Amino acid sequence: MGKGKLFIVGLGPGEARYLTPEASEALAQAEALYGYQPYLERVPVRVGQARNPSDNREELTRAGAALAHAAAGATVAMVSGGDPGVFAMAAAVIEAIEAGPAEWRALDLVIVPGITAMLAVAAKCGAPLGHDFCAISLSDNLKPWEVIEKRLRLAAQAGFAMAFYNPVSKARPHQLDTAFDILRAELPASVPVIFGRAVGRPDERMRVVPLANARGHMADMATCIIVGSPETRLVERPGLPALVYTPRRAGDD
Ligand code: SAH
């Protein structure tokens, strides 16, 4: 007991070139992999390495299975898209450890960071996160929608740029439009809104529109949205997409 090891590995936003060398090493060491099926599919198959795919929304069960496997003495890797600490498996595993048997606390736990979606999206279009920002999941699976509305309003009032994860789902088709309406009441109509879809994958798509024109149908679940602060602006370039950036200095109002 105590010799088991659990890696929680961030795969980055897309293709293998976004994987860090540390993440590659962790994946190579693992006897067994756990994770949401589409993320596991990004990891090359290795002979002798067991793969345990699971469904979305089964995070706690998946975390418990990986912890029990590691506690039995195995080296196990749990994979997440992007960074495992951002709306992903690291918190689910620690939640399971908090509620689980004492032996899970003795495990060698290594969390391997990855490039999170908002950083990949930001890098594609300039420097929209160049000053203070926050990240908000728009999913109301794990918190009431009223809390999301309140955070949107206060973050806009505080002058943060914002990155939105989980912007839409079939179960809540209208909430993103509601979110934009809330922001339009607080922010200038010209604030740039960036829709970065499947960034780092072959079907990547970037779109920048002013807040006045931002609509829910412009995003799907593979989209990370960045809404600028009142200072965020475009720098036009001849024959090239405009750069979106948030100056390093904020107004003193
Ligand atoms: N741990 C992940 C986020 C998981 S939540 C990370 O750090 O990136 C899932 C959400 O992440 C999606 O709904 C979408 O908003 C965002 N996302 C994940 N991969 C993305 C990509 N390649 N391009 C744009 N957004 C992405």
UniProtKB/TrEMBL annotation:
Pathway: Cofactor biosynthesis; adenosylcobalamin biosynthesis. Its EC number is 2.1.1.131. Keywords: Cobalamin biosynthesis, Methyltransferase, S-adenosyl-L-methionine, Transferase. The keyword Ion transport does not apply. Residues 5-213 form the Tetrapyrrole methylase domain. GO terms for biological process: methylation. CDD domains: Precorrin_3B_C17_MT. This is Precorrin-3B C17-methyltransferase. It comes from Ancylobacter vacuolatus.
